Amino acid sequence: MRTRTPVLDAPEAPRPSAEEAWQRLHPRMIVVSVSWLVGPAVPLLGAIFVARDLLNAHGLIVLGSYIVVAGVQAGHEWVRYRTTRFRITDDKVELHAGLFFRTDKSIPRDRVRSADLTANPVHRLFGLAAVKVGTGQHTARSEDDELVLDGISREQALQFRALLLNRSGATNPDGSAASPALPVPLARMRWSWARYAPLTVTTFAGVLAVVTGVSKLLDTLGLDITDSGTARDVWDWLTSVPLALAVAVVAATLLAVGVAGSLVTFAEAWYGYRLEREPEGSLHLVRGLLTSRSVSVAERRICGVELTRPLPLRLLAAARLNLLATGLGGHSARFSNPAQLLPAAPLDSAHQITADVLDETSSPITQAALRGHPRPALRRRLVRGCLLAPAGAAALAGAGAGTGLLPWWTVAAAALLTAACGAPLARDAYRGLGHALHGDYLVVRQGTFVRRTVALRRDRIVGWTGRQSYTQRRAGLCTLTATTAAGRGAVRIRDIGVAEGLGLADAALPGLLRPFCDPPAEDH
Amino acid sequence: MPHQMRQSPRDGSEAFPDAAAPGLLSAPGPGRRPDRRAVHWWLTQNLLVVVPVLVGVAALALMPDAPSWLWPAFAVLCPLGVGYALLTPWYRYRVHRWEASTEAVCATSGRFTREWRVVPFTRIQTLDTKRGPLMQLFGLSAVTVTTASAAGPVTIEGLDKDLASALVRDLTERVRALHEDGT
Is this model's pTM higher than 0.90 or not? Predict the structure, then answer.
């Protein structure tokens, strides 16, 4: 038996709203939805055409199943189109969808915290867009937090966004309530930022994806690359030249593919990047070449920022910037990282935009004097880096040696190598730990492979949590968590001294903890 | 209301100047325990898991061509399982505490990893009451206080069901009186 008492929405009689007509998604959406089938069709037909003399039963089965999948998908999309309806009434947004499994969603208008527009290339080709309406609440059922209208015309989508975000103008159905004042630009695209793009993990991931994707496709079609004349010529050449040269050529080729891939990804994601503050105070971000992304966040939803610096970017004084805001950082993968404010860019730009976004004269991240953490925190990191990680590496190498793949001396080598890397990384991780209260902000820094600095507005902290594992208790440390409605829902301060952490929590939200912090009462 | 009971000794601590405070704070130790019946509830829960497992192992060992290591395994599992089932309810009863002050709710929990959570009334979004079949048998309820954050619900387990509904009623009134948006 469960009872849920929503304490915020006092039950009021549902006032009879003017009955708005239900609307459908745009019929062109059916075409858009099945368009992804064109993607596999091109290489499939191309490969079959090129290698038609090699075609066997395997290839025919793949082709046949493709046609079946296409038919089923088209039928499914037609049913989806016929059964999906939505409407925006005076006080809520409603979406009904599904034939066998109905989902009826409704979000009260005054709960709408964000309305993000996105349009992938196919959407744009057909003049459509998707609107994601977010509430910034995290309930146990996370899919309840948001409502996606995928496939309405672009003009309609723009109107909706204006209508939903501009609550004062809610009576104005055409969304023209926006004041004539112009938005203030905060940042624009700079192509010089592209130099940081290859330094990300996506470079290597991109190479891997290309290589595995191509080999998978050839494999699925039953084509053997060794049958191809060109491939054999390349292989023969590689085996004829000295080994070092061959390795260098292969490495250079993969690197070139990776760099090119990361540059293309960067250009696609950040082309036309524009960050501006709209007259009513909300932040508006536009970016994207093929898939255009547009994110609006009302000013009162902004909770802070997160400065992210992966190891390569730290060496080059560069950083990425994410926004912490209620309703952002949700669960839908289709809106790729809507909270990212800035691609990898020089630190100065990141700090400047931090200050602009938070509406401060200078970034709290640069201003705050961070306090380090007690020495036992270093010991914990050294134990992890110099004992646990080498043990793990040795276990892996041992498994390899046990199956006869590796010689036995690799066990010791792996352990020693990991320990040698672990010690400086552990020291770096310890130096990275820091926390401070600066004005209205809680500033927390941590991490070594990816160093994150979070500046969170104090009045956005919705609670404090403290955790102490057994080893932390022995060391007099704890992990203090400021819970918030933004981002992943929590800002963790790892391995802070217990008394210091409680002092910080008490200073951030005065009077909250104090009543509980007396020496515990005697047992009754 | 039971929440007012511990007010008097607390007010004194407010008198300390803030500057001297940080060193003085100790980890939050809310004052109220779960209902005594919670021990029985946890015990029943544990036994419902442990006893069938042990019986199953014993039954397997009694089969004619059972592997010979089953009896030693049973001999090791038996004291471990029974010890776990009998002792953990008392341990949980000792560490699980809660309290509602004039501004916030606090609860502690955890066996090996200790945890405390504090949520101010102004940030409470929903109050969930849960009563499973076993809990109904023992007349208990669990109250979960949720906020706008995915990370910070405060759960108070093993409350007397009347106390739980009174608590929910009382908290609801107080939060509505504060009337804030919760984010």
Answer: no
